Amino acid sequence: MLRIFHNTKYDFIRWWRVAIGLTVAFIAIGVGSLAIKGVNYSIEFTGGTLKQLSFKTVTTPGQIRVAMDRAGFHDVEIQQFGSPRDFTVRFRGSEEVAAQSAGAEVVSKKVDSVLATAFGPSNVTVVRTEAISATVGNELRRNALIAILLSFAITLVYLAIRFEWRFGLAAVIATGHDVFTTVAFVKLMHLEVSLTVVAGLLTVLGYSLNDTIIIFDRVREDLRKGRKESLYDTLNRGINETLPRSILTHATTAAATLALLVFAGEVIRPFAWVMLFGIVTGTFSSVYIAGPVLLWIENKYPRKNAGPVWNTSSTATPTLRTKPSTATASP
Fold it and tell me: In a 10 Å sphere around its CB, with 0-12 CB exposed, 13-18 middle and 19+ buried, how is residue 187 labelled?
């Protein structure tokens, strides 16, 4: 059996200041980008009509836009989709959304007629059509938010049963970190937020939480062994002991996600981007967010008869109050 990174003794926690500084900066950049321009929601959330078009002859986005403007469609978003002859056209203006709400085929039939007139019926093929009313879009957005909040609530209940509240709170904070960093990544990458992206976000939360729980479970087992060491050292021990499993799991998951990113096509690509980033941020938060947060909570609200929290011999020890060890010093 392949054995890698066994019996390692890396001091992961000592880099918690640098790690938190990097993640705060990344989230700040994402929030700043959101302040400049909001989230790019798909028509699933905003309502409207989307058409994926395939042309036999070379066609430019400008030609499509001119044809749409002449037909009265002014708020149109045109993107190249895959090959140079494939495009997606989104109609998300207030007039188009209102017309879509009045009848599912109103905008779609008019667009088909305009395309046939402008480019010829044999020159353009409508590959797929999506039509969502504004009411349905608002409902989908609300349901997506409810799904994320429910995942947090269920997670909190599970952790309260599985671990003591200190571990559970640290894991939930680390999971919240993953939400903010993933949202920042989606914004910086200009990914369209669709139900597929929401599904990717929920998958990332579960993936990251699983990684955190595995580390915390090992830490809890090590604490029960009664070693005369600080919680700082026990956390580092737990991370190192689960390191081989983490590397193999993350490597195989990343390989599968890369395959989706390269070969699965444009529709599934946003999901693959979110998942690939989620592997990185989930691993990061399990080590550099959950661990230091647990140390801070334990330092603030120490367990009864607990040993020292921070390793006072470490150069990375923060200037926080440490709980004195109950062990008797040897002469």
Answer: buried
Residue 74 CA neighbour count, 13 Å, CB half: 3
Tell me which H or E stretch contains 3. Answer: none
Looking at the chain, the whole-number percentage of residues with pLDDT higher than 70 is 83
CA atoms within 13 A on the CB side of 309: 21
The pTM for the full model equals: 0.73
Cα distance between residue 310 and residue 315, in whole Å: 11
Query: Which amino acid type is present at position 244?
Result: P
pLDDT tens by residue, 64-110:
888 888 877 777 778 877 778 888 888 765 555 555 555 556 677 77
For the chain, what is the mean pLDDT? 79
Q: Quick check: 146 pLDDT over 90?
A: no
- Hey, what are 75's tokens? 């708020």
Could you give the CA distance from residue 258 to residue 246 in angstroms, rounded to a whole number? Answer: 18
Tens of pLDDT along 306-330?
A: 666 666 444 444 434 344 444 333 3
215-229 CB burial, b ≥16 within 10 A, e <16 = bbebbeebbeeeeeb
Q: Residue 79's closest CA among 92, 94, 67, 64?
A: 64
Nearest CA among 166, 203, 184 for reference residue 282: 203
3-class DSSP assignment, residue 55: strand
CB-facing half-sphere around the CA of 191: CA atoms within 13 A:
28
φ, ψ (nearest 5 deg) of residue 83: -80, 165
How far apart are the C-alpha atoms of 119 and 91, rounded to whole Å?
Answer: 19
Q: Which residues contact 184 (CB under 8 A, 6 or more apart)?
A: 26, 27, 29, 30, 31, 33
pLDDT at 292 over 80: yes
Domains in the chain, ordered, with CATH? 13-38+137-300 (1.20.1640.10), 48-132 (3.30.70.3400)
